[in-house]
């Protein structure tokens, strides 16, 4: 309910600013300023929405990092962005619900194991986490109530 009030407050503040601008400025300048303001709001909302989708899809806020520190330091910003987009696409292909992602012990290993299986490769060594024999889907703690 607090989110509803916050969004309503922001909308009322914006409408107040638009009306105030419309009254004080000449019509041409008011229209230009209003379009710039709405464009800025749309830009900020879409940017944060895209970043939030990447964070949610890759479980970036879980206890395990997406990349190890050495890999992260070797990549330049463009390569890091490409890698995060790749990880996001992999996460969407695996199609594990977000509420289960954060409960998994090794989500990133599970995603990489799924990608190797999709390509027809057998993973070397142990990738992903151990499957719980009692659970069919291998999510372990994610299925416990």
Secondary-structure topology with pairs:
Layout: H1 2-24, H2 27-58, H3 69-74, H4 77-94, H5 98-101, H6 107-119
Helix pairs in contact: 1-2, 2-4, 4-6
Provide a descriptive summary of the structure in words:
This protein has 145 residues and is an all-alpha fold. It has 2 domains: 1-58; 62-145, no CATH class. Helices cover 66% and strands 0% of the residues. The chain contains 6 helices and no strands. The chain has helices spanning 2-24, 27-58, 69-74, 77-94, 98-101, 107-119. The longest helix is centred in the first third of the chain and has 32 residues, at 27-58. It is elongated, with a radius of gyration of 22 Å. The two termini are 26 Å apart. Mean pLDDT is 75; it is low at 126-145.
Q: Briefly note the structural class of the backbone.
A: mainly alpha
Major sheet attributes: none
Taken together, the total number of domains comes to: 2
Give the number of helices: 6
Question: Which characteristics define this entry?
Answer:
single chain; mainly alpha; elongated; 2 domains; 145 residues
């Amino acid at each position: 309910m607090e989110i509803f009030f916050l969004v309503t407050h922001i909308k009322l503040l914006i409408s107040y600013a638009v009306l105030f601008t419309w009254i004080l400025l000449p019509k041409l300048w008011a229209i230009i300023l209003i379009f710039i303001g709405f464009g800025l709001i749309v830009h900020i909302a879409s940017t944060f929405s895209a970043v939030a989708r990447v964070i949610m899809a890759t479980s970036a806020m879980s206890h395990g990092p997406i990349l190890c520190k050495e890999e992260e330091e070797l990549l330049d910003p463009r390569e890091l962005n490409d890698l995060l987009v790749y990880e996001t696409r992999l996460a969407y292909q695996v199609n594990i619900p977000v509420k289960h992602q954060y409960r998994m012990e090794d989500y990133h290993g599970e995603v990489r194991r799924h990608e190797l299986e999709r390509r027809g490769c057998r993973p070397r060594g142990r990738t992903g986490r151990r499957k719980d024999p009692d659970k069919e889907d291998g999510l372990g703690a994610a299925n416990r109530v």
